[in-house]
# Entry
Amino acid sequence: MIIVRRESRLKKIAAAKAELEREAREQAEPGRAVYKMRKGIVEPVFGQIKERRDFLRFSLRGLRNVRCERKLVCLASNLRKLYGSGRAPQAA
# Structure
């Protein structure tokens, strides 16, 4: 039991250290520019999936199943955007 508590504490310390490193990168000028781009490009998509599509948690268990479910949700989101834009998908 002592080992489990120590590992848990080490994980918390590692997570705190990673958070501090991330904050330091964001404070630097190049880091701010990169984070600004990420905020405008990537994160709104996941927010839309969570809020507008009510996808708050995965239904399946296991890493492989979760990856497949995530791909399916992203595919559905992309198809809805294509349909809403009025453009027909091109054959590959």
Q: What stands out?
A: The mean pLDDT is 77. The two ends are 55 Å apart (CA to CA). The CA atoms of residues 27 and 45 lie 25 Å apart.
